[in-house]
């Protein structure tokens, strides 16, 4: 009997020791789970909570760590969610495969949050006895993902839909088979705002334009820069065409200043003008380009002939670039004559192009395009080098050389290193020839801000600069007086039939008075009749050039002309 009591006592002590040890293990296990920042829990095979950690209790605002033990999901969650959670548990127990999901969750304090949920089976030996889960708050990650998704389809400045979404939307509309119109819109003179007031002011202008365009359609896109697209059904064509003129020709106000922007648009229709998104955008761009060429401020409607013209333009651009490599350009030289005695006082170097397939191409056909594409800068540099080379060649041949005036483009002047480059090239000539290379710039080019510094550098280096086409632009007279120009060249439009045109006579006399006041010599361009030459001489015009005196001469004829007339 005593031994029985001793045995029972020993057994009880062992149980107490085991229970104490188990409790310590459980406490340590609980402490370990509580240190995990994510929500963690363990459930038995019936879906009842066995263990939950501190983060889990906190999100449910449960203070008693034992409150949830033995409870299931229906104790915490709405019935529909609780049923989903239990179905997941049963699936894990049945298949032994972990599951992962992302679910919205209504937080008692913070409102809706997003949780990433992972559930795994819990084994005892080879038997699944329950599930363990962990849930992580991924709300910030979700917000970041949503922001990235938004940025993928929207322009961050205007919050309009972007090019990527436009291409997606066009594919949907095209697949639907319904007809629609697309307007590609480009703001006119937008660069002036950026240049005058900075990019912040430019952004403010774009925001105002975007807001106005949204009144036209719910399908408005910004492609980048100052380009926008509007999509609308065909029945809205007339309405949108009219409203574009109304809303985009209104002034916009920036920093208490009013700006008149204006616009040009190219319009296409599906399916007539293209079967794919890329075709429609390409043809809208072609129509837009034609609208700008026609004078801006219009909605230019695409026509198939425009596409053919665009292909020809691309071919022309390729041929122009090849022309420099293949040495297809040459200079011809038009004499400039002193009217008092008909003596040669200089040449204007004019570019000519003999293309292998096209033959002789008129400057009227390629110079404007070269300016639009930027190729004119390379052509202009070639022309200057060729004029320098030709001047030196004539001098070495013993000819009594005269100045050569070379035309310079706005793109060349805008290059910050242009003036230094010109000065360096001219300074490599013998000293007595350096003053014989002169530059001609159009009135509009001279009045552009980037040109002013280059002109000052050139004139300070004693390089003569002439204003070409004077009378066709809008010169700032105060600026003109500070430019140290050498000559003004009156445009042909002022000279034509001047003996019989009283209005042209009045303009010409006024410009002559201005030139004399500025102490500038005058060259009249495009003199084609004796009567024009005599009238100009009577008014005190010193120099002239034109077909009455001579057509532009090839270099060999120019050398003979110079040799004969100057002797």
UniProtKB/TrEMBL annotation:
One Pfam family, short name = PAS_4
Q: What is the species listed in this Swiss-Prot or TrEMBL entry?
A: Chitinibacter bivalviorum
Q: Which residues form the GGDEF domain?
A: 178-304
Residue ranges of the EAL domain? 313-566
Q: What is this protein called?
A: EAL domain-containing protein
PANTHER family found in the cross-reference section: BIOFILM ARCHITECTURE MAINTENANCE PROTEIN MBAA (PTHR44757:SF2), DIGUANYLATE CYCLASE DGCP (PTHR44757)
- Give TM segment ranges: none
């Amino acid at each position: 009997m005593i031994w029985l009591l001793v045995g029972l006592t020993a057994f009880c002590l062992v149980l107490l020791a085991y229970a104490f040890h188990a409790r310590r293990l459980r406490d340590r296990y609980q402490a370990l789970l509580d240190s995990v920042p994510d929500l963690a829990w363990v459930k038995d095979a019936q879906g009842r909570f066995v263990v939950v950690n501190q983060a889990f209790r906190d999100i449910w605002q449960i203070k008693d760590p034992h409150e949830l033990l033995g409870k299931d999901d229906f104790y915490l969650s709405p019935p529909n969610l609780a049923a989903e959670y239990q179905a997941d548990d049963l699936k894990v127990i049945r298949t032994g495969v972990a599951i992962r999901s992302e679910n919205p969750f209504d937080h008692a304090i913070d409102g809706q949050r997003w949780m990433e949920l992972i559930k795994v089976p819990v084994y005892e030996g080879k038997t699944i006895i329950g599930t363990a889960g962990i849930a992580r708050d991924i709300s910030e990650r979700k917000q970041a993902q949503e922001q990235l998704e938004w940025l993928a389809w929207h322009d961050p400045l205007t919050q309009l839909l972007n090019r990527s979404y436009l291409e997606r939307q066009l594919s949907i509309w095209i697949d639907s088979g319904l007809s629609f119109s697309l307007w590609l819109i480009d703001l006119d003179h937008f660069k002036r705002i950026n240049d005058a007031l900075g990019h912040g002011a430019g952004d403010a202008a774009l925001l105002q334009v975007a807001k106005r365009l949204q009144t036209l359609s719910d399908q408005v896109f910004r492609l980048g820069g100052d380009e926008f697209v509007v999509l609308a059904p065909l029945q809205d064509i007339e309405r949108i065409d009219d409203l574009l003129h109304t809303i985009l020709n209104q002034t916009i106000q920036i920093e208490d200043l009013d700006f008149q922007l204006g616009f040009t648009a190219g319009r296409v229709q599906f399916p007539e003008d293209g079967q794919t998104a890329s075709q429609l955008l390409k043809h809208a761009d072609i129509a837009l380009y034609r609208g700008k060429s026609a004078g801006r401020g219009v909605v230019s409607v695409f026509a198939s002939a425009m596409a053919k013209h665009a292909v020809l333009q691309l071919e022309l651009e390729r041929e122009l670039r090849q022309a420099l490599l293949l040495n297809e350009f040459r200079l011809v030289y038009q004499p400039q004559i002193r009217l008092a005695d008909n003596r040669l006082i200089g040449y204007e170097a004019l570019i000519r192009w003999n293309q292998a397939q096209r033959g002789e191409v008129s400057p009227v056909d390629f110079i404007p395009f070269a300016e639009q594409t930027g190729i004119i800068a390379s052509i202009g540099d070639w022309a200057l080098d060729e004029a320098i080379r030709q001047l030196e060649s004539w001098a070495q041949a013993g000819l009594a050389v005269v100045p050569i005036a070379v035309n310079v483009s706005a793109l060349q002047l805008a290059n910050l290193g242009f003036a230094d480059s010109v000065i360096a090239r001219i300074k490599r000539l013998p000293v007595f020839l350096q003053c014989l290379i002169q530059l001609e710039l159009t009135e509009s080019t001279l009045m552009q801000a980037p040109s002013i510094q280059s002109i000052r550098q050139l004139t300070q280096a004693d390089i003569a600069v002439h204003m070409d086409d004077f009378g066709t632009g809008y010169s700032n007279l105060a600026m003109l007086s500070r430019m140290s120009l050498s000559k003004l060249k009156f445009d042909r439009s002022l000279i034509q039939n001047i003996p019989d045109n009283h209005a042209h006579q009045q303009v010409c006399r006024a410009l002559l008075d201005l030139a004399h006041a500025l102490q500038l010599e005058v060259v009249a361009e495009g003199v084609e009749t004796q009567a024009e030459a005599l009238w100009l001489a009577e008014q005190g015009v010193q120099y002239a050039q034109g077909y009455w005196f001579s057509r532009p001469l090839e270099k060999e004829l120019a050398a003979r002309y110079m040799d004969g007339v100057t002797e």
